[in-house]
Amino acid sequence: MKLSTSLVSTASLLLAAASSGSAASSTSARKANVYIQPVATTSGAAPPQLLAEIQYDPFFDAASGSAASTRDASTNAAASILSYEAPEFDADGDDDDSGGSGGGTLRKPKLLRIGVWDPSTATWASSTSVASAENFGKGYSPQIMLSVDARSGDVVGAALRGVRIDAGQTRDFGPKAVLLVDSPGKQPDLNKPVVLAPNGKKVEPVPEKTLLQKYWWVLAAGVLLAMSGGGEGGK
Fold first, then answer.
1. Where are the beta strands (DSSP E) in the chain?
2. CA 188: distance to chain centroid?
3. Running DSSP on this structure, what letter comes out for residue 127?
4. Could you give the CA distance from residue 221 to residue 223 in angstroms, rounded to a whole number?
5. CA distances from 153 to 182, 220, 224 (A)
6. How far is the C-alpha of 11 from the C-alpha of 38, rounded, in Å?
7. For 149-177, how does the pLDDT look when each residue is reduced to its tens digit (9 = 90+)?
8. Is 58 helix (H, G, I), strand (E, B) or coil?
9. 225: which residues sit within 8 A by CB, 6+ positions away?
């Protein structure tokens, strides 16, 4: 009875830990809507259009499958595309006439602006980047990259690139999402105490001696032994 009771207790603890881990992972998951907009050479520019809805978890620990305790690990991140709307370009259009109704087929652009767009305020919610429309061409798989702040988990920028499809290596030709978590860099050592000599001057670090400076006496002893041995052999 005691053995069965302990097994039941252990199983309950494992289930509770798994449920708490999954709950923590789900609560830290977020969504970002990435939009594209043709870069127009005239004043009339088409409004941004939704490209993909991405779910990401900047605090996801890929090793344990749960929310990571440290938020500055750039490799502990997960992202997936929930929905994707491939842009359709009008081959008969031109780059200078990029105005339109804001939906359906876009005029033929050369460059596209990519970022997180907020329709409620009609402003970009992140920094934007510019990519060529050729990234959506035949033989390329779009890869959407989100730059995320390690502390807050908010998207600070978005970018896109087209990865050439190699049918011999993979059969997954769909778009992919990549998460780049910005981790804080090394900080300078401030207020480091200064060591002063008795005369009040700064103590300079003593340079480390070379191997020759440390073991010169071994070389000298070897030379003396060689000379003494050579003299006796001559006699």
1. 30-38, 49-57, 60-61, 66-67, 78-84, 89-90, 106-107, 111-118, 123-124, 129-132, 140-149, 155-164, 176-182
2. 23
3. B
4. 5
5. 9, 65, 71
6. 56
7. 888 889 999 999 998 887 666 666 788 99
8. coil
9. none
Per-residue model confidence as pLDDT tens digits over 38-86: 887 666 678 899 999 999 988 776 544 444 433 333 444 588 899 999 8
Q: What is the pLDDT of residue 186?
A: 78
For residue 105, give the amino acid letter. Answer: T
| 146 phi/psi in degrees, rounded to 5 | -110, 130
Q: Which two tokens stand for residue 115?
A: 């970022």
Q: CA distances (Å), 115 to each of 30, 77, 79, 146, 154, in order?
A: 16, 19, 16, 9, 13
Task: Give the type of residue at 152.
Answer: S
Cα separation, 225 vs 114, in Å, equals 77
Q: Which residues contact 55 (CB under 8 A, 6 or more apart)?
A: 29, 30, 31, 79, 80, 81, 82
Six token digits for residue 197: 């000599």
Q: What is the pLDDT of residues 81-121, one digit of tens each?
A: 999 998 887 655 554 444 444 455 666 678 999 999 999 99
DSSP conformation letters of 202-213: BPPPPPPPPHHH
User: Using CA atoms, how far apart are residues 143 and 160, in angstroms rounded to an integer?
Assistant: 6
Pick the closest to residue 55 from 37, 80, 75 (CA basis): 80
Which helix (H) or strand (E) segment holds residue 3: the answer is helix 2-28
